[in-house]
Design a protein that fits this description.
This protein has 166 residues and is mainly α. Helices cover 67% and strands 6% of the residues. Helix 1 packs across helix 7 and helix 8 crosses helix 10.
C-alpha cells in the first residue's frame, strides 16, 4: 500500500473521512481539480466548514488537539483550511493531493451537489424565519419549508439554477 493510500486509510479509520469528503466537495464546488491545486498551492487557502454529528465530534477532537479548534469541535462546528489538512496528511507521509487521489471516495454527482446546495439554502431560510420570529408575516415563517411558500421558493431556486446551467 502506498503512503497516500495508507494515509487515506488511517484518516478514514480514525473517523475522519468527513474531512476528505469535504475537501473533495470544496474542490468540486470551486471547479478545481487536484492538478489545479498542485499547480497553484495558493488554492490551499480554501476553507472547509463543517457542522458535525455527535459521533464525528470525538474523532475530530482527538485529531485536532489545540484548544481553540477543540472548543469549536465540541460546539459541533469547525473551520479549517485545506493547508491544515495537508499538514496533517504530511504527518502520515503523504500530501493532500495524493491522499484524495488514493482515497477514491466517490466524487459527488451533479444531483448530490444540488441536494447539498438545496439543504444549505433550506438552512439559511430556516435561520431567517427564526430571526424573524413569531411576529413575522406568515410567508416569512413559511421560509423554513413547513408551508407552501418555502416549497415555492425552493422550486424557484431549482428553476433559476437549471436556467443558468442551460
Amino acid at each position: 500500500m502506498s503512503d497516500a493510500a495508507g494515509a487515506a486509510r488511517r484518516l478514514r479509520d480514525q473517523g475522519l473521512g468527513v474531512l476528505l469528503d469535504q475537501a473533495r466537495l470544496l474542490l468540486e464546488r470551486s471547479g478545481r481539480t487536484l492538478s489545479d491545486l498542485r499547480a497553484d498551492p495558493s488554492l490551499l487557502r480554501g476553507r472547509i466548514h463543517l457542522h458535525l454529528a455527535p459521533e464525528e465530534v470525538r474523532s475530530l477532537a482527538d485529531f485536532w488537539g489545540h484548544r481553540r479548534t477543540l472548543r469549536k469541535v465540541q460546539e459541533g462546528r469547525i473551520s479549517l483550511s485545506l493547508a491544515e489538512l495537508n499538514l496533517r496528511c504530511a504527518q502520515f507521509g503523504a500530501d493532500l493531493f495524493e491522499v484524495l487521489a488514493a482515497d477514491g471516495g466517490p466524487l459527488l454527482t451533479r444531483a448530490d451537489r444540488e441536494v447539498a446546495e438545496e439543504e444549505a439554502l433550506a438552512g439559511c431560510l430556516s435561520r431567517l424565519a427564526k430571526i424573524a420570529g413569531e411576529g413575522a408575516q406568515p410567508w416569512i415563517r413559511g421560509l423554513s419549508g413547513d408551508t407552501r411558500s418555502g416549497e415555492w421558493l425552493r422550486r424557484a431556486w431549482r428553476r433559476d439554477r437549471a436556467a443558468a446551467e442551460a
